[in-house]
Amino acid sequence: MTCPAILPSGHVSAQPFFNHPSAVKKMNFFSSSLNWFTKLLRLLGACALVAMMLVTCLDVVLRAFGHPVVWAVDMTQFFAVIVLACALPVTQVERGHVGVDLLVLKMTPRNQALMDSLTSFVSTVLFAVVSWQMWIYARELSTKGEVSMTVQIPKAPFIYLVSVCFALLSLVLLSDLVQNIRKAVKE
Q1: pTM of the model
Q2: Which of the two ends of the chain, N or C, has the fewest CB atoms closer than 10 A to its terminal CB?
Q3: How far apart are the C-alpha atoms of 32 and 48, rounded to whole Å?
Q4: Which pLDDT does position 26 carry in this prediction?
């Protein structure tokens, strides 16, 4: 499958589009940018996990002395949202999601790459739609002024973070899609 690439100079290259040096260079930059963002999310998620642990420990210790932390449940929920949202794109970059590939392993390498391309495409579209809908939901929460029960912290910023993380997951899956198409074209 060779799709000729049109170069910026207007000339047509015989190399397949996805394997053209300029496309590869742009994709490498895109992938390295995504890796930088996922490292940032890994750090944010780790900090939220530590904070969640500290709040829980503080609540347990103070509860033993008859002084429970009233805001512990709210803060634990917010920290859990941050941890889970940040983990989505990070886990995809690290190939940590569980996949069942019993049938795919029996396919030829080209068909495996095509199946991976299809899966990446469907996942990209799905999580882009989820991201978009989460953004709309966060905007509704923001407009209504929805806050947590005890601490009265607005919920919208946390839902916006979830939306951004789903968008980053979609971009990681898009990067995977391009890599899978490259594999399919090479095979």
Answers
A1: 0.81
A2: N
A3: 24
A4: 73
Domain ranges of the chain: 17-186
Q: To which residue do tokens 């904070």 refer?
A: 51
How far is it, in rounded angstroms, from Cα 64 to Cα 146? 32
Question: What percentage of the chain carries pLDDT values higher than 70?
Answer: 86
Length of the chain: 187
**DSSP 8-state assignment for residue 11:** P
Is the pLDDT at 59 greater than 80? The verdict is yes
CA distance 58 to 71: 11
Number of H helices, E strands in the chain: 4, 2
Phi and psi at residue 145, in whole multiples of 5°?
Answer: 75, 30
* CB neighbour burial string for 13-48, b if at least 16 within 10 angstroms, e if fewer: bebbbbbbeebeeeeeeebeebeebbeebbebbeeb
Q: How many CB atoms lie within 10 A of CB 79?
A: 22
Which residues in the chain belong to E strands, given as ranges?
A: 4-6, 12-16
